Amino acid sequence: MRRRRWFIAASTPGLLLLTCVALCQETVIRVNVDLVRVLATVKDTVGELVGTLEKQDFSISDNGVPQEIAVFERRTDQPLSVALLVDTSLSTAKELRYETDSVARFLKAFFAEGNLSDAVALYSFNYVVTKMSHFTISFPRLDQSLKSLRPEGGTSLYDAIYLSSGELESRRGRKIIVIVTDGGDTTSVKDFHAALQAAHLADAVIYSILVMPITNDAGRNIGGENALATFAAGTGGRVFAPSFGEALDRAFADILKELRTQYLLAYYPRNVAPTKNRFHKLEVRVNRSELQVLARNGYYGEAEPVPGLPGGKVSAGPGKPYGK
What CATH number labels 76-259? Predict the structure, then answer.
């Protein structure tokens, strides 16, 4: 079985530099899918969060087959693991200090309001991905790392999502990726599809803050915006496009509100026939037409047997016990 190899070098205590030196065929992992967990956010017609629904208000289908909801939590307090990805490419040089100041205010509020087990890991990305801090509950440690960020060339966004998703996968509770960036990918080894698949395998919800200091359409990276929108749609997150100052702070505040108003739904897949595509399509609905549900659109589960490979169950998640 061929494996991918990653070069991991310590540059200062507590800081890891991650970059790919050789990429091979993806490893196929085989596990049974026991419990599929879905985080959902519900909004009304004016965009206000709705956090008072009951289990019977929701329905879930897996590849078109209705499923019975086995676990339901309203305003779930399952612990949060947040991978915070900050773009430090050269294009951010002028505004980086404003971004990091706003991130620091978000983190302060996050730890003040949340579960004592909530934790954040900080990554920066330019032409490489740097893990600035392991998952921690220490705001001062994260704040110190934020203040050390320096801009360099390139934007390895997809690599950052891929690597942070891999580290989120083993975390218990809810997994969230928050990306602060001003444009699209330019230097990643991994592509868009590999990054999105990694996020799905980690059960991670992706929120992107596309910082746009430009007041008109000239110079905008439409491809980057579309990629971020697809990440959000696929995982049940959102894309914000604020300018700096109060608008940036409001974007972080909105993310925080959504994290505190999420529903947790989970089910054991039943009567879902394997298909050639191991990606199972999920659809989450509520029984009130005026409400909108944001939830991930699928997961990697059972597939038909592949010639030359034993068995037909192909998955790298979400076959983890509830709460793990």
Answer: 3.40.50.410
